[in-house]
Design goal:
The chain is an alpha/beta fold. The protein contains four helices and ten strands.
């Protein structure tokens, strides 16, 4: 495999893929379908951890299920309750496969780290280096997250 340079197409075996370089805030590997939004999401009252569904009626992704998806978001609207809601989603098996942001979000990281301690399960939290290349992600793209590298397949 050639080196993964932000936004460059690299060869991986016989498949050409686009790779976005990032920084693993909470390292890990995940695969999923992208749920993409530039709108902040309130996890407290906006996300049903029992089903993994976005239930905020005013959010563009209302009705979308986050389970087995990689979320690309700017941030969330709430801070204090978010780790608790994500912890419940991890326990219920409905948490996102990964969360990808354009900035370091300590609350997403906290939820993943505590979930690993409490349940032995965590999810990667990655920050993209380049917001313009991060903006190329679209809903329903298949993503592979490998500790800082985001592959679009």
């Amino acid at each position: 495999m050639q080196s993964a340079v932000d936004g460059r197409v690299v060869r991986d075996d016989t498949v050409w893929r686009r790779v976005i370089a990032g920084r693993a805030i909470v390292p890990g590997d995940a695969e999923g379908v992208a749920l993409v939004t530039s709108e902040a999401l309130s996890f407290w009252g906006g996300f049903d951890f029992n089903t993994g569904t976005i239930i905020d009626a005013h959010h563009p992704l209302v009705g979308a299920r986050g389970r087995a998806a990689s979320w690309r978001c700017r941030s969330a609207r709430d801070h204090r309750p978010r780790p608790a809601v994500l912890l419940e989603a991890v326990r219920a098996g409905t948490a996102p496969a990964a969360i990808l942001t354009t900035g370091v979000d300590s609350f997403f990281a906290l939820a993943s780290i505590v979930a690993d301690v409490m349940y032995g399960k965590s999810f990667p939290v990655d920050r993209a280096w380049s917001p313009p290349s991060f903006a190329t992600l679209r809903n329903r793209m298949r993503l592979v997250v490998r500790s800082g590298a985001i592959r679009l397949t």
